[in-house]
Structure prediction request, 683 residues.
Amino acid sequence: MNKFYITTPIYYVNSHPHLGHLYTTLVADTVARYKRQRGFETFFLTGTDEHGLNIERAAEKNGIPVQQHVDNIVNEFKTAFAPYGLTNDHWIRTTDDYHKRGVQELWRRAKENGYIYKGEYEGLYCANCNEFYTESEAKVGEDGTLNCPQHERPLDRVAEESYFFKLSEFQERLIGLYEKNPNFIRPETRRNEVLSFVRGGLNDLSISRVSVKWGIPVPDDPKHTMYVWFDALSNYITAIGFGGFKNDWQFGGEEHFKKNWPADLQLVGKDILRFHTVYWPAFLIAAGIETPKTVFAHGMWLSGGRKMSKTLGNVIDLAVLQKHFTTDAVRYFCLREMVFGQDGDFTYEALLERVNAGLANGLGNLASRTLTMVGRYCDGVVPGPGQASAELTERADEVRAAVTQAVEQFDREFDEYNFSRALEAAWSAIERVDKFISDAKPWDLAKHADQRGALELVLHTATETLRHLTVLLAPVLPNATQEIWEQLGEAGKVDEIAPNTLRWGQSTGKRIGEVKPIFPKLDKKKVMDEIKQEEAASQAARTEENKEQPIQAQVAAQAPAAAQTVSEPADAPAYITIDDFAKVELRVGQILTAERIPKADKLLRFTIDLGEAEPRQILAGIAQYYEPEKLIGRKVIVVANLAPRKMRGLESQGMILAASVGEEGRPVLAGFLEEAPNGAKLK
Ligand code: MSP
Prediction:
């Protein structure tokens, strides 16, 4: 039997679950159901990422032990996901013991193979404040000694240990991997993005921290805690038994791992593409483990034109969603509305539209009109194909051919992860049979005894179409299709029937079940009014919560307001205080992509990694002086808390610093001579 192993990212437990998290999980669930229905022995994994400094801090802020804090949020995720009947075979938590041991095993193997070494972070150290300082932060004494700016005592020149991963040795191997396996990164645009990033050169990666305690200890050196991404990415192998530490699988630990690895499909949002396509394969290769077959990066749900995020306060609340829409409706919308791989705008209006058009008027209406007529005109027993005119018989044959074609097309698109196109194919069959029914008017045929054969042919064709589509759509609409299945008078679980085992005509003679509406039509205005009220209430609750945000998030959130404060009087001194300077958040960034903007001679569009969950889009007016391709991989300095602004319809989420040289103000990008990690703050 063929196996299929599918994963989602594991979600951070420093924020509450929202539609973005649910989305990836629903897609994975649908693919898992699809594969199972087609006979694949499928393993579907999701879970939570529970280590790291910010989680430690969040717990501290709430005044509860970290483990209790993570347990609470994990429960919140599980409760929010529960109504969707997800079929994940396991929920991994990075605080699980077998995971910790598995990650340590991965580390050991990479180290034994010579890819992990102990290095040093060099810096100036004040033993009184236990802090590192850079030379520019130090206060220079009269005799030239470098002193602590707080204590004004000489600083020690010390080095802090850190383990490093030899990522720099993987450039060729990774390029080889991408070139040999064009399906390793999908879609193609993402593959090109990663290729150009890796071609720009890779630096070794610091993979341990001595200052972070909430994490997995480095084997044989427990004062070091592993870098969270080394820990988190490993979940995909530890969950299925890598190292043999998870022995409670009915199949056995390591054996289960060997059977399932490599993963067939790792779904991620494009925000975490690089971690999964650069670091992850490099860690695996270093430990002598096969790389996954495909990492597919989907786009982001935007809300009000921006990525849904808790900080922006534009997340779609799962409670509001669940109150008004069935879980099947949400699944259908997610798969139908978003072109998989591209960003999509989430609006409740679009959701209502899709539910009413596609589900209530489309599939729901086909089911209820067909089954009601079988009940009314055929005593509830599905008729065989009656004798009818040559013309009607031809029309019925065309419907049958269209269904066969739609079923094949659905699978072809689904296998390529083109979910919206797969659904379009299924709905084309619904439109086809709807027209057939409306043209043939079975309600009129029923009035004439000599038209009995024609009536039976129409209802037989409609019922068969419905039956085939019900089986086909089971992975997407698990609840509704089971209900229709039972109304069709069929026994058993619809999702256990492989579409290719169905034969046209098998429904003849079946007694149908009780006919009930499947997708009631929603009153758009009423639902929208209710949603608006609920959203306003939850927005107010969020604002309250944000008041208690960690300091750093507050600075960013307040930045636009700070920029509007009254200007200084003309005679104010030219100095600013250190507090004024501290308002500007300067960070190290690395350019991931750079491109020209059509019809804008001066602007370049960048995506820049600031060590955040997802890269930022930043625009800069340097196109006349720099070639975008040459900037990829370069480290720059970014003003990270500048209020976002739109240029040429694109939002710039920060500013790159450059010297302005000569009369024409030629920009010269600021950078670093030594290695500076992405996201590091400039002080
Ligand atoms: N913990 C890391 C992932 C580690 S995987 C080894 C993380 N967690 S996260 O909670 O921030 O989740 C990110 C993922 O959630 C995205 O990659 C995507 O799958 C999903 N989404 C979060 N917001 C989303 C949208 N607005 N739209 C679509 N998916 C979104 O990163």
